Amino acid sequence: GQNIDQPTEMTATEGAIVQINCTYQTSGFNGLFWYQQHAGEAPTFLSYNVLDGLEEKGRFSSFLSRSKGYSYLLLKELQMKDSASYLCACKGGSYIPTFGRGTSLIVHP
Amino acid sequence: DGGITQSPKYLFRKEGQNVTLSCEQNLNHDAMYWYRQDPGQGLRLIYYSQIVNDFQKGDIAEGYSVSREKKESFPLTVTSAQKNPTAFYLCASSIEGGSSGANVLTFGAGSRLTVL
Asked: What does DSSP say about strands A84-91 and A60-65: parallel, antiparallel, or unpaired?
C-alpha cells in the first residue's frame, strides 16, 4: 500500500515564499506529482519529479528526495490567486497515482 | 479544444436510487479514472480503465459500477448499495495507464452528487 502525508492547512502573506511538504511511503516508486485545485474545480497539473533534485517552473518549484521519501512544492512571490488546495500524488508499483489529502493554502494581503 | 466533459455538474438523488455520471474525453487517451473527493479526504480511486472493455477496482469500488465500451466514454453508476454517496466525483484520463512515464492526469470539472 501507499501512505502520503502533507499538512492540512497553511497560511502565507502575499509576495512571500511558502514551502508545502509531502512525505510518502510506497512499494515501488514511479514518480511524484503536484496538482493545484481551486475550490469546486478540477485539479490541474503543476509538476512531476521522478529523479532526485529540484525542478523549476516559473514561480513554482518541486523537489524530490527518493531516499527520504520526501518532496516539497515551493511557491515564490505569492499571489492571492495562489489560494487553493495543493495535492501531492505518488505513483507506486501499480503505476496508478495515489493522492494525499491535500494542503489548503490561504494567501492573505 | 480537447478535454474531458463530465455531466451533470450537480445531481440530486433520493436514497435507494441508482444514478449514472457521464464522462467523455476527446484527447484520444487510453486510460480513464474515477476519483471521489470528500472534505479533508483528498482524492480516492474508485475504478480505472487502461484500455477499452477492461477496468479494475480501485480502493473504494464497493457500491459503484463502470463500463468502458468506447475509448472516449467511461460512465460511473452510483448504486443504492453505496452507503454514503454524497461527494464530489472527478473523472480523469491519461495517455496510457500502467506506465512508468509521467502520464499526467487530465481532470474533468467534476460532478457533485447530493443524496436527499
From this structure: unpaired
pLDDT digits (tens, 9 = 90+) for A21-30: 999 998 888 8
Which region holds residue A53: left if phi is over 0, alpha if psi is between -120 and 50, else beta? left
Distance from CA of A9 to the nearest CA of B (A): 10
pLDDT digits (tens, 9 = 90+) for A72-102: 999 999 999 999 999 999 998 888 889 999 9
CB A51 within 8 A of CB A99: no
Nearest-neighbour CA in chain B from A16: distance (Å): 26
For residue B63, give the nearest of B89, B84, B90 by alpha carbon: B84
Return the beta strands (E) in B14-70 as ranges. 19-25, 31-38, 42-51, 54-57, 64-66
CA distance B86 to B75: 17
